[in-house]
Amino acid sequence: MTLTVRSVPTTPFEGQKPGTSGLRKKVKVFAEKNYTENFVQCILDAAGEQAVNGAVLVVGGDGRYFLKEAVDIIIKICAGNGVGRLLVGQNGILSTPAVSALIRSNKANGGIICTASHNPGGPENDFGIKFNCENGGPAPDAFTNKMYDLSKVIKEYKVVEGINVDLNKIGTNKFEVNGKSFVVDIIDSVANYVELMKEIFDFGKLKAFVSGSKPLKMRIDALNGVTGPYVREIFINQLGATDDNVVHTIPLPDFGGLHPDPNLTYAKDLVDTVSAGDYDIGAAFDGDGDRNMILGNKAFFVTPNDSLAVIADYVDCIPYFKKNGVQGFARSMPTAAALDRVAKAKGQEVFETPTGWKYFGNLMDANRLCLCGEESFGTGSNHIREKDGIWAALAWLSIMEHTKKSIEEICKEHWKKYGRNYFTRYDYEECELAPCNQMMTDLENLITKPDFVGREFSNGGKTYKIKLGDNFGYTDPIDGSVATKQGLRIIFEDGSRIVMRLSGTGSSGATVRLYIEAYEATNVLGAAADMLKPLINIALEISQLPKYTGRNAPTVIT
Ligand code: G6P
Ligand code: ZN
Fold first, then answer.
1. Pairing outcome for strands 218-221 and 281-285
2. Among 67, 463, 486, 521, which is most buried by a count of CB atoms within 10 Å?
3. Is the pLDDT of residue 506 over 70?
4. Which helix (H) or strand (E) holds 101?
């Protein structure tokens, strides 16, 4: 029986504007009649004929509340728009890195990912949808702007209502829509990704290291997010770890009430357990599996900046890079510059991009970049076009195996060799938007005045002299596209920096991010909080943040 397509009249919703990483709103908003349908239709319209008609798309998400409903809508709308085949993770489950890998290994035309990443889930919390292109990476600005423009004028969406697929059952579901074939393959959520990890890392060596005669003391925390099944397959089944090495490995619709963000505040259980116990490594991943946090013994914290720099330094102990060579590094602008020093030592190019993984894609596709990261707990390589939490943990295990040293020793040696970029980020969440915008405007005016350069600020016995103040802009070296107003930078003579920007991933209100970085060439073993205090005070003074936001303390410190 051939199924027919129905055009359903609809009207635009306000604010379907994708942020740093897709559209994120409360579940209640996505559940409004036609809201999700409209947005999916706009994705397909923005993707255009060749990425839709007869195309292959990957669909999945992080297991959060509303996932199955959204996947069902996506299947029906894809059918209505002439898509040829969908690869859907079992029960809708696919981590963000796994989607990226599947798009690439199947030469698919793109993928639709249902996630609000590290934002809390459940009926009262967030949902999200984003589109990844055929290179496996998040859609670039031009594409998401097009989606947004279309969302403002949408009049109808196309749907095939008679398609019902059992998401639990692995296998092929064939349909005929207007005389053409439409296939929905329900696939194993982890198999393809695990194969990729086995190609990148030396699983033989890692297995001996993790579960040999002296088993590694490990605590891997999936925070009830999507990585649970991946963690179990890789660490337990492949590397021989035991059940007590992994926790929170069942993806839950509300993440068990946890905030699935791997940082010192939200991954508290991991931090407390690793501090109190005797562990060689602690690691956590976010809701959709692209972020990571790495801890050493007694919860020695590896900042994402240092993590990236250390992996860059030891890049040769990962078989993937040995085989494919090393082609450049990159970090986002707010990320501390520890990486730059390694790049210099290795004679590698290093790029400074705006916040958002999408800015790395072009450089990777052009073979100018193979390893990159962000201060926001993202680390990854050109094996896919997303950051990759489990990949980062496996990279650290590879370095530990290679050096036979502890995480703390590895970091301290790194600082002795390169100096240390002390770093912290203060987040002020759910502030009122208008005063925050005003603060950013006023601060920009102040720091871009010519007489700002050369001014000196002193606090706690330290004096910092201004070298430059600007609103960061970036021209993509590959396609020349320009991104402006990516964050305010105050750079000091000694390389220390204050950066301030508004988050692009929140679903309500404004989140101010204040990034503080102080470089020390030799004084590398101080406590980060003490070392950064003077610069933090200077940042609060210059920006007048407490006055504008009414906040005397950040919500989260990372
Ligand atoms: C997501 C993106 C990252 C980005 C982060 C920034 O996680 O995938 O690439 O660094 O958002 O979020 P923000 O809230 O600071 O805009
Ligand atoms: Zn994420």
1. parallel
2. 67
3. no
4. helix 96-105
Structural tokens at position 135: 């290179």
Q: State the average pLDDT over residues 107-129.
A: 96
**Residues flanking ligand 1, CB < 6 Å:** 20-21, 117, 332, 355-357, 374, 376, 378, 503-505, 513
Please state which of the ranges 46-50, 91-95, 384-388 shows the lowest mean pLDDT: 46-50
Helix, strand, coil percent values for the chain (each to nearest 5): 35, 25, 35
Contact 105, 58 (CB under 8 A): no
Q: Which ligand is nearest to the CA of 512?
A: 1
In ligand 1, which atom is closest to the CA atom of 511?
Answer: 14
Cα angle at 181 between 176 and 182, to 5 degrees? 85
Most ligand 1 atoms within 8 A of CB, residue of 24, 357, 386, 474 to mutate: 357
- Which amino acid appears at position 178 of this protein? N
d(CA 221, CA 223): 5
Residue 409 has a pLDDT of 98
Just give the CATH number of 2-189: 3.40.120.10
Calculate ∠ Cα 401-407-412, nearest 5°. Answer: 125
The whole-number average pLDDT for the span 234-242 is 98
Please give the model's pTM, rounded to 2 decimal places: 0.94
User: Does residue 97 contact residue 390 with C-beta atoms inside 8 Å?
Assistant: yes
State ipTM.
0.96
| Contact predicate 465/493, CB 8 Å | yes
- Name the helix (H) or strand (E) containing 320: helix 319-324
Which residue from 395, 206, 199, 245 is spatially nearest to 316, judged by alpha carbons?
Answer: 395
Supply the DSSP symbol for 254: T
Sheet holding 371-374, edge to edge: 350-353, 329-332, 371-374, 378-381
Q: Which amino acid would we find at residue 69?
A: E
Q: Scanning the structure block, which residue is given the tokens 């201004």?
A: 466
3-state SS, 118-173, equals: CCCCCCCCEEEEEEECCCCCECCHHHHHHHHHHHCCCCEEEECCCCCCCCCCCEEE
Res. 20: pLDDT tops 90: no
Residue 315 is given by DSSP the state G
Rounded mean pLDDT of the chain?
95
Determine contact, residues 477/135, Cβ cutoff 8 Å. no
Which residue's entry shows tokens 């839709």? Answer: 52
CATH number of 192-417: 3.40.120.10
Q: What average pLDDT does the segment 127-133 reach?
A: 96
CATH for 420-557, options being 3.30.310.50, 3.40.50.970, 3.30.70.260, 2.60.120.430: 3.30.310.50
